[in-house]
Design goal:
42% of the residues lie in helices and 14% in strands. The strands form 2 sheets. Strands 5-4-1-6-7-8 form a 6-stranded parallel sheet. Strand 4, helix 6 and strand 5 form a beta-alpha-beta unit. The protein is elongated and about 55 Å long. The termini are close together.
């Protein structure tokens, strides 16, 4: 076990690019989305695609207090409608609904990193484990699908708090739920600014760079594989 964990009581994990990754290589442009838009999408420039993504994500961020999977599906329907309109993809209402439901309900959109369940199983014997994630209500099915739900003592999901990391309210929610002082907890995430938010409250940060895009210079302890936590 890493020395940094030995005097801690709680380990918080992010989910995306920490416990799992998207099967398509993209969280929002799922395999179903790519199947229905592939030809037209390839005709658009990277700049056009990024602008459409940004418009869709801006919409999702306006009201993130989402309480049910059905509400999540509606939000995704609106997101894909915006992307389709911005890029001229011509997705029908039925196609947008299919993509939105697939995004929320098809757990094959997620691939756990090697050793994920093993690591959480091992650490659950010595620590309480929790989640702090920017996500939607379908995360509960996702965590069960990747085989880690049974090892978690508490969860903080942005959709139930109504804010995204690094807003301090999301970390405070997690600390209240675990009932442990911040300096006795650790947070593992793939984004430095999210770790900055945790560190500002006294939570010990660890950067995970399982995703190559997260492998940046940092003063925080950095790992590349969850299994490093238990070696």
């Amino acid at each position: 076990m890493l020395d940094i964990l030995r005097d801690k009581k709680v380990i918080f994990f992010d989910v995306g690019y920490t416990l799992d990754k998207p099967a398509s290589g993209d969280w929002m442009f799922t395999n179903r989305f790519l199947e229905l838009t592939g030809g037209k999408l390839k005709q658009r420039t990277e700049t056009e695609i990024q602008q459409a993504r940004d418009a869709g994500l801006h919409y999702l961020a306006q009201d993130h207090l989402i309480q049910s999977v059905e509400a999540e599906i509606q939000n995704f329907f609106d997101y894909y409608s915006i992307v389709s309109d911005k890029l001229g993809l011509g997705l029908s209402e039925e196609e947008r609904n299919q993509i939105a439901r697939d995004r929320a309900c098809n757990m094959k959109n997620y691939i756990p990193y090697p050793g994920t369940a093993e690591v959480l199983s091992t650490l659950s014997k010595t620590h309480q484990l929790g989640i702090i994630s920017d996500t939607w209500p379908s995360i509960e099915a996702q965590l069960e699908y990747i085989g880690v739900s049974q090892y978690l003592s508490f969860t903080t999901f942005s959709c139930f708090v109504g804010v995204f990391k690094p807003d301090k309210r999301i970390y405070l929610d997690a600390l209240i739920k675990c009932g442990v002082p911040a300096d006795e907890t650790v947070f593992i995430d793939d984004v430095v600014r999210n770790l900055d938010g945790a560190a500002a409250l006294g939570i010990t940060p660890i950067l995970i760079a399982a995703n190559p895009g997260a492998d940046v210079e940092t003063n925080y302890l950095k790992i590349h594989d969850l299994r490093e936590l238990i070696r």
